[in-house]
Every structure is written in structure tokens, then in C-alpha cells.
Amino acid sequence: MVAHMSESSTRDFYDELARDYHLIFQDWDASMAHQAQVLDEFLHSRLGPGPHRILDCSCGIGTQAIGLALGRHEVIGSDLSPLAAARAAAEAAARGVSLPAAAADMRQLPFKSSIFDVVLCADNSLPHLLSAQDLQAALIGMRRVLRDDGLLVITLRDYDDARLAKPAATPPQVSETPDGLVINFQLWHWHEDGERYDLEHFQLTPAQNTWNVRVRRTTYWALTRQQLTEFVTEAGFTSLAWHTPASSGYYQPVLTAQRTSSP
């Protein structure tokens, strides 16, 4: 049986999370700045100082895109969730930068060919695609919108260990906000294939003498580094390199690759 991404369920997950996504972070603006600094080092080492024209094709509420825009890059955002994309644009404007953002499926990017220096797909977004067919469509589309020698940057969870350990949950993450403590944690329900899992994201926010509990559900494909390397290579990218959190300072493993002039 071939699994495919349910567009509606993934979009619903991020539509529901869009208002509260920043509560995942201890300090969202500080995280924006740090992530942009690390990502900019990848761009600088591969493409030079820039500024560069960047498509963040899973921009969410703008965690990476806003930081890069503040770093004087020209950033365009797209996301499956229209509510997340709208918030990204608004949050950027509130910080004095422009971030055009639109709702779009990464498997059908609505942009002209060869117009971006960089395509970014961060925050474990690519593993929402649950089949080889969907992954190939997305990666070929990312390659299409990149200029020759343009840079692809993908970040995702370290699934090599997770595929072996099959964790059932993540440790609770407690954040201090102006309104009080916020608690986030996840439950993972593994499929029989041992590769995909359903995720339940729990977010507890303080209310008067109690807690508001929000639960959102989605599905991921726990892609190993070898699997993703093969998909990216098949899509026509070269110069692939993996960067670990220990070496890069980024919170997830990062894959960089470049578009070649021929498929």
C-alpha cells in the first residue's frame, strides 16, 4: 500500500497551530536570529555573501524566512497553510521587512523556473510527504525554480536513530512566556511499516486556575539520511552534504545540495 500526504489534514494541522506556533520557542525572535545566522553561513559558503533571492517553501509563520529577510536577503514565502503564510507576512511587516507569502503546495510550486538562488525547506516539513511519488514531485519542483548552481537547503529530524528506537513520545518542553508557562510535548504512533508515524502535538497554555489543552494531529515519514540523499540525487542535485547540529549549530540535521544545469 502506497501512502500519500493528506493535504487537508496537514493543512488543518498548521492552520490550527498558526496562532500559537511561536509558543513552541522560549524566545521566538531570538530563535529567528540564531537560525538565520546559521543558515546564512551555508548560503555564504556555497553562493557568496549575497544578498540572495530565497524561496522558503515551507515558511510556516516565518521562523526562518523573517530572520533571513532581516539579514537583507530577498525572501519569498509559501506554505500549505494559508493562515500560517498570512501570519508570516504580518509578523515580517511588524519587524520592518517585506515577506511576500502565499498558500502553496510544495509539490506544485507556483513560481517561474530558474528564478531563485536558494530554496529552503526547513522544520521537518518535507517528511509530511508520505510517498516516493510526492517526494519526487516536490524535489523536482524545487530544482525547477532554482537557477543553475542554486542551493537547496533541507532540515529535518534525525530519523536514523528514531527509526531504530521507535520513541513513543518526546520529553515535555516548558517555555516561559509573558502569560506564564507553556508546555509542549508529542506522542508518536508508529505505523506497521516502521517508517511512518502519526503525531499528536499537545500544547498546554495557562488559563484562570487551570490549563487550556490543545491537541493537533498529523503524519510524518521518518526519512533516514540515506533515503533522502537518494531522493535528492535522483531529482538532479549534486554536491550533497549533510551537516550535523554539532558541526553547524543548527537544531536539526541540514542537507545542502546544488542544482545542476542538466537533470
TrEMBL record:
<dbReference type="InterPro" id="IPR041698">
    <property type="entry name" value="Methyltransf_25"/>
</dbReference>
<dbReference type="InterPro" id="IPR029063">
    <property type="entry name" value="SAM-dependent_MTases_sf"/>
</dbReference>
<dbReference type="GO" id="GO:0008168">
    <property type="term" value="F:methyltransferase activity"/>
</dbReference>
<protein>
    <recommendedName>
        <fullName>Methyltransferase domain-containing protein</fullName>
    </recommendedName>
</protein>
<dbReference type="Pfam" id="PF13649">
    <property type="entry name" value="Methyltransf_25"/>
</dbReference>
<feature type="domain" description="Methyltransferase">
    <location>
        <begin position="54"/>
        <end position="150"/>
    </location>
</feature>
